[in-house]
Design goal:
- It is a single chain.
- 66% of the residues lie in helices and 0% in strands.
- The chain is mostly helical and 507 residues long.
- α5 packs parallel to α7.
- The two termini are 36 Å apart.
Length: 507
């Protein structure tokens, strides 16, 4: 109880829920966060039912969404929430004053620098190592939105149509957003506390009551007509996601203390535990840290769906899909058979952001550049950088295995099953090994863990990447262009190389 009270005093938001914090033995900032998200869920239902686009103008919907978002932010973070408005206002001024030709670069530097300054101040001045809710968490999502918007405006107003990829054409913005639209996009109540990031076009289409308006392709005409005939209800999906999120919360609260990550670096554990038992414990300790992310992201997704945001057309069975801005796929994460599959299903919207602003646009070493940007975006703890630097070599090794080894196991179902079992175990251990510094935060404990494992995965991954070289992405793209120019009978890169994907990036 004393620990919770001590932590509660560090909360910069409202103290109205202090009795709840003391009763539950949880820090006040975390109590404020959960209660505000529950209030946002209720507000989302009200927003969809009483401020529906058929009843209310986009102006009113923008104003209400923004005012509620700012209120929830002030309740959780006090006057620190003004950083959300300052960061957004500063970058909007840059967009207006600098012009569309270079605004995306300036906005990336300024927004990321502002975020980094706040993170460094919070970590090294106030509460180093306090792993709880803080005002820089929402700023991370706002930074994604600011930079995504700037790049999408640049694509829509400064680049030629033929130079854009298919995805960039869909998301490209053809006009400068108004100040109200900009603040509504960044600070709306549905996503201000926990995201997820979404594209500006998707958000405006939702506010104006035309979801998927700009995404409809020729093959999607039928689903589009069905949408216009009858708007699907998100209620069943919201109930499912809320139930999933609170189940994950219960799992986290009940088992997280049973397998503390810090035990992996205790001297007696390292000295007296067989290596195979250390591997099993590492997997269990990292497995039990994930449900808290599942809780936050699934609840955030449910809030957006409850407001009517997140509809993504219909599946092959005609059922509505509500995964447009979903941030994770839990089963795909837990049963991932490659490092890439894990990353493609974890923090999905951040992965999309990294792909759009870095991986797709970086001509050389895009994987390393994307990992470094991800580390800078996550914060100032040294453990983050150790995790993402390790992630570079693990990704290169996993890509090499997938390119060079996997095709040999696709000749029969039995061989494929064997490959999947082996790669599932290898992927889970590699992920756990990689993200230990992300949890431990500091350099000393992180290096102590890696030393106890003799840096074995680092060495193994480097050897695999060297022994099984894969051509850099820009060379593969040149080969694709050359093949296409020689005639249509040649297969494009996606067909010739089953491991190639436009999502081949990191978070």
């Amino acid at each position: 109880m004393a620990d919770a009270s001590a932590q509660s005093t560090a909360c910069t938001g409202s103290s109205l829920l202090q009795p709840v914090s003391e009763m539950t033995n949880l820090p006040l900032d975390q109590v404020n966060f959960v209660v505000c998200q529950l209030c946002a869920l209720i507000s989302a239902f009200w927003f969809r039912l009483f401020l529906h686009p058929r009843k209310t103008s986009p102006f009113v919907r923008h104003v209400v969404a923004t005012v509620l978002g700012v209120y929830f932010a002030l309740f959780c973070f006090g006057w620190y929430a003004l950083h959300f408005l300052l960061q957004s206002g500063l970058t909007y001024g840059i967009m207006i004053l600098t012009g569309v030709e270079h605004m995306h670069k300036y906005c990336l530097v300024v927004a990321l620098s502002y975020l980094s300054l706040c993170q460094i101040t919070r970590v090294y001045v106030f509460d180093y190592g306090m792993y709880s809710a803080d005002f820089t968490g929402p700023m991370m999502v706002i930074t994604q939105k600011i930079t995504s918007l700037a790049f999408e405006i640049h694509d829509g107003m400064a680049r030629k149509e033929e130079h854009l990829t298919a995805g960039q054409k869909i998301l490209a913005i053809r006009r400068m957003p108004s100040l109200l639209e900009y603040f509504s996009y960044n600070c709306n109540f549905m996503g201000i506390l926990a995201g997820p990031t979404c594209s500006f076009n998707d958000y405006i289409a939702f506010i104006e009551g035309e979801p998927r308006r700009h995404r409809e392709q020729e093959a999607d005409r039928e689903s589009g007509s069905r949408l216009r005939q009858g708007e699907p209800s998100p209620n069943v999906e919201v109930v499912r996601k809320v139930a999933t999120s609170f189940f994950c919360l219960l799992v986290f609260l009940s088992v997280c203390k049973v397998f503390p990550v810090e035990r992996n670096i205790e001297d007696d554990f390292i000295a007296n535990t067989p290596f195979y038992a250390q591997v099993v414990y590492l997997y269990l300790s990292m497995l039990t840290t994930r449900p808290k992310y599942y809780f936050v992201w699934t609840l955030a997704d449910a809030i957006n769906n409850a407001a009517g945001f997140g509809f993504n057309g219909y599946d092959s069975n005609g059922a509505p899909r509500w995964d447009l801005i979903s941030n994770l796929r839990i089963l795909n994460i837990e049963f991932a058979t490659s490092f890439k599959v894990f990353l493609d299903n974890w923090n999905i919207q951040t992965v999309h952001w990294l792909k759009r602003v870095c991986y797709e646009r970086c001509p050389y070493h895009p994987t390393a550049a994307t990992f470094i940007l991800s580390a800078m975006w996550h914060g100032a703890y040294p453990g983050y950088y150790l995790t993402f630097l390790t992630g570079i070599v693990v990704t290169l090794a996993a890509r090499a295995v997938r390119h060079k080894v996997r095709p040999h196991f696709l000749r029969s179902a039995a061989h494929k099953l064997l490959y999947d079992i082996i790669t599932w175990a290898a992927t889970q251990i590699a992920i756990c090994y990689t993200v230990v510094p992300f949890v431990l935060l500091s350099v000393g404990p992180s290096l102590k863990f890696y030393r106890s494992w003799y840096f074995c995965l680092h060495i193994m991954c480097i050897l695999l990447a060297v022994a099984l070289p894969v051509k850099p992405r820009h060379l593969r793209l040149k080969e694709q262009q050359k093949a296409c120019s020689q005639g249509p009978v040649l297969k494009p890169l996606e067909a010739a190389d089953p491991t190639y994907s436009h999502k081949e990036k990191t978070s």
